[in-house]
Amino acid sequence: MAENPEVARLIPAGSGAEHASVERLEELGIVGAGGGGFPAAVKFKTRVSLVIANAAECEPLLHKDKELLLHGAEPFLRGLRMAMELVGAREGVVGIKEKYHDIIDALENAAPAGVRVVALPDCYPAGDEFILVHMVTGRVIPPGGLPKDVDAVVSNVETLINMAVDRPVTHKYLTVAGAVHTPVTLRVPVGITIGEVIEAAGGVTVDDFGVLLGGVMMAKPAASLDDPVTKTTGGIVVLPVTHSLIRRHNAPWLQVKKVGHSACDQCRFCTEFCPRFLLGHPIQPHRAMQSLLFNQGSDASVATLYCCECNLCTMFACPEDLDPKTVCVQNKPVARERGLTFKGDPKSIEPLPMAEYRRVPMRRLIAKLGLGEFNNEGPLKTHTFAPRKVKVLLKQHAGAPAIPVVKTGDRVREGDLLAAPEQGKLGARIHASIEGVTTVTSDAVLIEA
Ligand code: SF4
Ligand code: SF4
User: Ligand 2 mean position to 123 CA, how many Å?
Assistant: First the structure.
């Protein structure tokens, strides 16, 4: 295990708290740091017998969870124990890729009573909650369901560390990868621009580039280098503007629809590789493609409701370079509006016998995506950020935007409360990530140092 004291200090020791409460999680503004942004206070308000720590990081090029475990095993395991206590779980499981032998050994040596490590195959999308729960427990979460439906709660590595650190969430760990001089994992203030974070990774190595936020498979293209980092930004990937992934993520819906309509030969490869289909869920992306021939919202659309948007059908399976994932995404609201839903018996759902053999190894996925030259270790490194300004968004979590509790012109210090959820609505508190003077806008609180 690497032990660089400066790097280890990047994971604050915090108060050393041993116990958590949902009220405390609410106070600290902790949300799912893996990308979902679901408020932890709501997730942990349940009783289940198993907590699964999701360390199955499977977005190509991103390594922040691996790095956090390498340097922060103690707060991580403490956070896992706190989560178990909170939900009354007897058992905690760390689901981590089998390739990380050193980390697995270290976790097994340090694991407290009731916690064990499960080594997972290096495949995509091992980090999808439904797939992870099945690989760890053999149970299948029903379509549209939650892990608690099968007596479990799943939480990301960074979320559990945030619980143990026991401070307001003001910073985010993320990997900067792709066409940058120094691919790296950093701890950055929430609200800093992605442009400043890319500079901290040594800057861009190509003239014309695009930026994908959150990885490459489930990415959201950045609108501009001024976009702020949020509590759910797990990665920033820079790629040459000519790279097929940038082209793919920027393709307009009309183009996706027209090409899909004329070129899909119904070969079913998208369905045969779909991880949720293989889990036995009622999703068949080739049927969603049929809806382009007729009308969206046809009965074929029910097959899209349970798509997790992992993008494997589009990025890996389709031999025609079509985009069934986007067709599923576009169909979902139409299907919801029409009240289409799965009417079968959830208990009858069983994984398909070939599921195990259709797993997509990361190595093959990275090659298929043309990312071989950008593969990296993403080591956690120190960097002193001193932004003159941050933009802390009011909505960086599942639910409704938070309501500001500060006014323009207020002076705040790091950790001060900026905004809180409206009474009775799902949401999370937002805190200042730097010291300075606030400006309140319709969607954010700006802080000028
Ligand atoms: S894999 Fe591509 S061509 Fe084949 S059915 Fe799916 S979308 Fe159509
Ligand atoms: S994105 Fe494609 S492969 Fe992934 S769950 Fe949806 S339909 Fe299946």
Answer: 15
